[in-house]
Amino acid sequence: MISQKLNDQITRIGPDTQAGGVLRRYWQPAALADELEGRARVPVNLLGERLVLLRDDAGTLRLATRHSSPDELPTHYPDPDAITVDPDGPVYPVDLRKGVVFAYLGPDAPPEFPNFDCFRAPDTHVFAFKGLWECNWLQALEIGIDPAHASFLHRFLEDEDTQDSYGKQFRDKAAHTNMPMTQVLREYPRPDIDVKETDFGLKITALRHMEGGLTHVRVTNQIFPEAICIPMSREMTITQWHVPVDDETCYWYSLFTSYQAPVDKQLMREQRLREHRLPDYAPLKNRDNDYCYDPAEQDTLTYTGMGMDINVHDQWAVEGMGAIQDRTQEHLGRSDVAIIRYRRMLRRAIAALDEGRVQDLPMCNGVKPSSIVGPLSNDAIADSADWDAASHRADMQRRAECPWDASV
Q1: DSSP 8-state class, residue 127
Q2: What does the alpha-carbon distance between residue 200 and residue 197 come to, in Å, rounded to a whole number?
Q3: Tell me, what DSSP letter sits at residue 149?
Q4: Cα 94 vs. chain centroid, distance in angstroms?
């Protein structure tokens, strides 16, 4: 457990807060390119600020402060045609990458982008989407760096035909075996978890020891300050940011990156729009309808009884903690090692920024962001004595067979 003062320090993100100061030193997703279709302006609520994304006749983008009422809710989506720009506000730099408009709200010049796979792959191989969660950004991130939760929260009591798995996480077969991933997670629910610090954040390896001297190796990553990179299937990864709207609301932004065939953007968009509404990308399953909980489904099909979309499971879990999780009452255990290591990293970054040591922030500490590639993020089945090297070989093989330059 931690004190209320510390909980406030690592969760609050306004312009004058310590965690907010850290987040403002990095590029943040602000909008999807899809939101600009047919529009010259799009409202953006980001890091406690009310903004508007503007596109001129030449296609140039800029992000500016907009006028808003004092009682405007963070989830309010104003009529774009009624938005007026505040002439006295700041104008922030933006960069459109792979279907996401990134913004830099910090001082000085913005940093380079890291050379991650999601940015290196051609546009044909990357699909972007987002969704709204009514909770603080930190608890949204922390569920993504907890490898053990998938065996429980995303437990499927029956295994789907993996031929129909496209665009769905945990619907693939584990590498080099006919065992569906849903079965692996269900039958081996207590992984050993190894966490190492990297130039970009944390490398998190979950080891599920199986019969016959084999181990299922799942490598995921925390990308500082608030992103993750995880395997979606053997051929696709998800890089996902957890972006504060304000202290009590956030968006997740995901870039789905394919290593082989181009992504079917129309299919993936249709899949996700069945679960979200426009224009604010709010989930159709939410507190107001009990996330469409079905006790019959819970008895026979899923752990939550809330459908097959794992985003809904995560949403229910993080929103159920309250707007800002009360960490003064928590008791972390062995499986929370990545969460513990991340909070230490965030606190070190806060201290460094307070002391004027910007160069000590992750991806600012003497390593050029453009030199950071990858990260390794995959599933593999390996001999237990050789799991680390086998996981690396599986990633290298995938990259060698990739039609675009995924070399590291």
Answers
A1: E
A2: 8
A3: G
A4: 20
Instruction: Look at residue 292 and give its three-state secondary structure.
Output: helix
Residue 215 one-letter amino acid: T
Which residue ranges make up each domain of the chain? Answer: 4-18+112-400, 27-110
Look up tokens 């970054």; give the residue.
349
Give the model's pLDDT for residue 223: 97
Residue 92 burial (C-beta neighbours within 10 Å; 0-12, 13-18, 19+):
buried
For domain 27-110, which CATH number applies: 3.90.79.10, 3.40.50.1110, 2.102.10.10, 1.10.238.10? 2.102.10.10
Residue 39 to residue 356: CA distance in whole angstroms: 41
d(CA 5, CA 18): 12
d(CA 343, CA 330): 14
Distance between CA 254 and CA 236 in Å, rounded?
12
Q: What pLDDT was estimated at residue 87?
A: 83
Residues ≥6 apart with Cβ < 8 Å to 382 = 214, 215, 217, 390, 391, 394
Which letter does DSSP use for residue 404 in this model? S
Rounded to an integer, what distance in angstroms lies between the CA atom of residue 74 and that of residue 95?
Answer: 24
Positions in the chain whose pLDDT score sits under 50: none
> How many residues make up the chain in this entry?
408
C-beta neighbour count of 165 within 10 angstroms: 18
